[in-house]
Structures are given as C-alpha cells and as structure tokens.
Amino acid sequence: MVVEVKKVAKSYGKKNGSRVLRDVSLHIEREACVALLGVSGVGKSTLGRIVVGLERADQGRIFIQGERILVGKNKRFRNKVQIVFQDPYSAFNPRLTMAQSLAEPLLIERVKKRERYERINAILEDVQLDQELLDRYPKQLSGGQLQRAAIARALICRPLFIVFDEVVSSLDVVQQHHILTLLHRLKETYDLSYLFITHDFQAAKYIADRILVLHAGEVVDQVEKNGNGSWQHFKHPQAIRLQEAVWS
Amino acid sequence: MFSVLWKKKALIFSSSILLLAFLFALFAPFVVPVDPFAGDTSRRLLPPSAEYWFGTDHLGRDVFSRLLYGARYSFLGALVVAIIAAILSIVIGTIAGYRGGCLDQIFMRISEWMLAFPSLMIALVLVGIFGPGMLNLMFALILVFWMPGARLVRNMIVRLKEERYVHVARLHGGSSFRIITRHLLPFVLPHVLVLATLDVGSVLLHIAGFSFLGLGIQPPLPEWGAMLNTSSDYFYSSPWLMIFPGLIIFVIVLSFNILSDHWREIFHIKK
What we know:
Chain A is α/β, with parallel strands linked by helices. Chain A has helices spanning 44-52, 98-108, 113-126, 143-156, 173-190, 201-207, 237-244; strands spanning 3-12, 18-28, 33-37, 59-64, 67-68, 81-84, 161-165, 193-198, 210-215, 218-224. The longest helix of chain A has 18 residues, at 173-190. Chain A starts with a strand and ends with a helix. Chain B is an all-alpha fold. Chain B has a domain at 79-196. Helix content of chain B is 72%, strand content 0%. Chain B has eleven helices and no strands. Chain B has helices spanning 2-7, 9-31, 63-70, 75-99, 101-115, 119-130, 134-160, 164-171, 176-212, 224-231, 240-266. The longest helix of chain B is centred in the C-terminal third of the chain and has 37 residues, at 176-212. The interface between A and B is medium-sized, with 24 and 17 residues.
C-alpha cells in the first residue's frame, strides 16, 4: 500500500464553519490509479492537498508507505509525494525559466550539475517536450506544453505517488487526450501511484483502475474495473448523475 | 536609441544629480574648495561671486563648501536611514508574513498603533527621548520609517506564500530560507526599492526639518537644514544663505521622487 487515508475530516472557518470533508477513507496500491470524481466544491482538491501534506486535516490520518504524514514534517517523503495542479501557469514561478524550474527539485536534493542536466533531458524526452523550451519563461509556453513541464517537474524527483488535481480540465480535447495517454505511459514506466482528481467521468474511466465518487465531503460510491475492461455500475444517485452528465 | 534617451532625460538628469551628490558626500573633505568650518569675520555675508560661488555666511564661511560638505549629513544620512529602514522592513515583514500566527499579530498591532500617529510626531517624541544629535535623529527616523515598508512586505508575503509554485517548492523539500529568497523576495524587492527611494527624499526632509528646529544635527556641522536654521536671521539682508540650501534640498528630493517614479515604471508597479 502506497497511500492510506483514514477518516479524514476538514472544515473551513471556526467551530460552525463549513465542513468540507467528513470521514473520508481511501487507499492506493502501488502502480494503481484512483480517480476521485465529484462536482465542483465537494472537497476533492482539499483532499488532494491534505494527502500531499500541503494542508492539515482536522481529524484523521494519512499514511505513505505505512508512515504517518504530518504537515511540515516527514522530510523523507517530501519529494516522494507530488502534486500537479489544474492551472499550470500558476504552478510555475514566472521569474524562472523552465530550466531553472525543472532544476529546482534537483538543486534542493544537491544533485551534481552533470547529473542534473542528464535527468532534465531524460525527463523532457519522457514527457515529449523540446529542449529548446528550457530557456523560455512559463508565459512563453502553451497550456499543454506547460502542463507537460509540470508533470516533468513532478517526476524529476522520482516520486512514489502523484496527485493530479484537474490536470486536463483547462486543456482542449486533443491536449487532454495527449496528457492522459502520457500519464498512463509514465505510470507504467516509473511504477507510480496516482490520485486523479477530476469531474470528468470519461477521463476518470480512461486513466483509473478505481473510481471514488465524492459528494458533500463523503465518498458515496466506488467502482472498479472488471477483468474484461468494463466498469462496475454506480449505485448512488449522485454518482449515476455524474456518469450520465456527459455531452452526447 | 537617442529618442529613448530623450524620453528618459528626466531619469538621466535626476540620476546624475544623485550620483554627483553621493560622490560629493563620500569625498567631501577632498573636493571642497575652502575649509567649510573655517570662519573669517572679514568676509562675512559676502554675496555670490567668482571667488565664493554661493557667497559666505554670518561667520564668513564659504556656503558652497558647506553645502558640499553638508551632503555627508543630509544626503548620506538620509540614504543610510532609508537603507537600514528598508532592510529592517524586509526582515520583519518577511518573518511576520511567512511565519504568521502570534508573531504576525504582534507586528500588526504595533504597526496599527504607529499608523495612528503622524510619523513626524513619533519622530519628534523619540528625538525628545534620545536627545538631539545626528545619530539619535537617524535612530529615531529608522524607528519611524521601517514600518510602512514592513507592512507592504508582510502583505505581499502573505499573498505570495499561497501561490501554487510556492506549494510545489515546499513539496520539493525546499527550506523556508530557499522559498523566501528564491520564490518570494524577488517579487517583493522591486516594491521595497520604489518605496525606499521615495523614503530617502522624505527622510532628507525630516533630517533637514529637525535640524532646522534645532533638534537634529547641531551647528557648526553644515547640515542643510541646520544651515537654513542659522541663516534665518539674515534672510532679508543675505537671502542666498537660505536660497541655496533650500534649492539643493528641493532638487535632491525631487530627484529621488523622479527616480522612484521610474523604478515604478520599470518594474510595472501600480501606484
């Protein structure tokens, strides 16, 4: 088991503030991809941020490879858990070139210059990005290119587990397909585990092995892929509504 | 190229004046034509001439030499106060904004309390406590001028630390120092530079004002404000004694304001 989330709860505001998550539990095995499906505002992103240790849960526990994760601690796991955000433009420091941004995790790890260079080039090849882009600033790249760069940056520190928070939502259909195919391939290449946060049932079906439906801060339904590639059926009305809400 | 220079003529002009003033302040003892402290009653209150460009004062001292030498106190003093205040504001604002919590609360309450009073009044009280003199005045002005900058830095850090790329840097294991120096301060520093440049002019006016009131630099030191103070009795008979120090204060403060405006333009900072 790579990730285990046990009865996580989170509220914003003071005592009577809005409760975003209620007793959410999930687990992700090695090389598995779990999709977290839900409409906007149900707490998907909050859960993603709690899982990677960017936010503190009010209750519950997170374990990565059996070790409990606490916000601001667990340095051993720091770069082993990564997140890729929906808007790639906000995920890059606008004052750093792509080369500087990609080198940042390696500089923190004190990787030598030669190895840094090799790892950056290798990862660029993996995400199918041109080396010429290294000298450019984030605003000089397209959304698709920048999202690939964000994936490259998450991968460069060789993580165990990555949270993808609506990574394809801001891209056009062609780019969405390219990114999803890329994520699928990278998962196999690097033995990664994913938590794929989305509101798009089709994207979840394409990439995940298991889909959890989050509604009003709770996991209300979950389905798995059958051996023949087909999916189990949802039972919860909200999950069925999400499944049916596809443009025909 | 020439048209760009022409457009920037105000910037070039003000920068040249400030650079010149800085050099005079640094090398004043070597460049003054006449000893600024040496009086000669036989040549007192002489009008501007080829020999004494800005005339002489009531003790027969060369006003031009005293103005050049005075740059050490007025100009350099203001520069040092603004730089120390800017450094303090960066350090305190960053710690308060980045750490948050109790430390931030304490900082915010102190700054609110200080904002409730005019800066001149606070400086006046502090000078009253510490006593007159260059160092005391500078210390009082640093205590007054660090706060607006620190609030600016604190507010920017509070906003910037929630940016996604800062979260990513944290996940990569970046230390607080690395996150602050690489991802936060580069966005804050241009704003501090604009504010500090504007502050130099303001501090200079404060130093001159306090010296004029007799609370700052004391005679016979040729501080520009103190020169205005000692010349006030001779304004009608020898107006150059007040015109030249007044003019130089005006030009220097104006130059800092122009420079600050151009920094703002260069770094695309909104007013």
